[in-house]
Structure formats: structure tokens, C-alpha cells
Design brief:
single chain; Rossmann fold; six-stranded mixed β-sheet; binds 1-O-pyrophosphono-5-O-phosphono-alpha-D-ribofuranose; binds xanthine; binds magnesium ion; magnesium ion binding; EC 2.4.2.22; purine salvage; Xanthine-guanine phosphoribosyltransferase; PRTase-like
Length: 159
């Protein structure tokens, strides 16, 4: 198991819900969208929230493996979506290096690509996002974490 980057950005379920709704508000001024392609697995929860807000019932998945915990591995596409993405919305939780977004965009070039979080390297690949996070920060999603004791910052600094 590789270690997480030093800087982390933990996200609670409430924050995620709020930010996914903020994304839906922005997207509600665009479209309308025929359906949503959720990029698994991280895009599944945001896609469910956006689908509920925009009353979209047609949901498909683009299934991609890119990271093994914190390290980027070989990109593997397990499943795509038919068509060129015209009038479709792609939803993922975040763009980091942009490698996943690039691969999905090649599959569905006409779709609108939306994420909740964007790091600078991936930002140009996204049409709509809510929050920018610095490149050296790891976003910790609520499904990947649980509450536990953590050292005060001063003690962490002194080794
Ligand atoms: O911009 P990139 O550097 O390509 O990184 C972004 C992608 O990495 C994560 O997926 P991951 O491969 O970890 O799979 P998961 O969604 O199943 O957690 C995240 O959900 C994005 O899909
Ligand atoms: O949970 C995650 N947090 C991140 O910051 C990230 N970047 C790529 N893949 C990621 N997964
Ligand atoms: Mg993902």
C-alpha cells in the first residue's frame, strides 16, 4: 500500500451532498441532458445526486480503473457507453491529472463533462466543476474514510 500525499482534503457526506447540489444548480442552466454517464466508481454518488436534482432517469456507466489507492496505475477501460455523447452529461467526482477525463472524452466527445472537484492539471478537461483543490492535495471522500485520532499539527511537524 502506498502512502497518501501529505496534504489531504477530507470531505464529509454533508459537504459532498451540498457540493453535488451546487454542481446540479450550475448544470440546470445548461442542457437539457438526455442521460448521465457516471464514471465509476467515484462518479456514482455525485451522479445519483445530480440525476435526482435534474430529474434525469437514464443513467449509464463508464467503468474505468486508474488508481490503486494513491498511485496511478495503467488505465483500464472495463466498459464504455454507446454513441458520441450528444446531449449527455458525464459525471465524475474529480479530475486530478486529467488522464481519466481524457479517455472518457475520447469515448464521448460531444458530452458535457462535469465534476465536483478539479485540480489544476485536469481543470482544462472539465466543462463544469464546483471546487478547485491544489495539485499536491489528496481529496478524501466519505466512502474512503472513518473518524479516528489524529496528531496535532505541531506534533506532526516535529516528527
Ligand atoms: O484525473 P486523473 O488523474 O485520471 O484522476 C481522476 C480519477 O481518479 C479517480 O478514480 P479511480 O481510478 O481512483 O477509481 P474509483 O473512481 O473507482 O475510485 C477519480 O474518481 C477519477 O475518476
Ligand atoms: O480519492 C481520491 N482523491 C484524489 O485526490 C484523487 N486523485 C486521483 N484519484 C483520486 N482519488
Ligand atoms: Mg474514478
Amino acid at each position: 500500500m502506498s502512502a497518501p500525499p501529505d496534504k489531504s482534503f477530507p470531505v464529509t457526506w454533508e459537504e459532498l451532498h451540498r457540493n453535488a447540489k451546487a454542481l446540479a444548480w450550475r448544470l440546470s442552466e445548461m442542457g437539457p441532458f438526455t442521460g448521465i454517464a457516471a464514471v465509476t466508481r467515484g462518479g456514482l454518488v455525485p451522479a445519483a445526486i445530480v440525476a435526482r436534482e435534474l430529474d434525469i432517469r437514464l443513467i449509464d456507466t463508464v467503468c474505468i480503473i486508474s488508481y490503486d489507492e494513491f498511485s496511478q496505475g495503467q488505465l483500464k477501460v472495463l466498459k464504455g457507453v454507446a454513441g458520441d455523447g450528444h446531449d449527455w452529461l458525464i459525471v465524475d467526482d474529480l479530475v486530478d491529472t486529467g488522464r481519466t477525463a481524457r479517455a472518457v472524452r475520447e469515448m464521448l466527445p460531444k458530452a458535457h463533462f462535469a465534476t465536483i472537484y478539479a485540480k489544476p492539471a485536469g481543470k482544462p478537461l472539465v466543462d463544469t466543476y464546483v471546487t478547485e483543490v491544489s495539485q499536491d492535495t489528496w481529496i478524501l471522500f466519505p466512502w474512503d474514510i472513518e473518524p479516528q485520532f489524529i496528531q496535532p499539527i505541531a506534533k506532526r511537524r516535529n516528527g
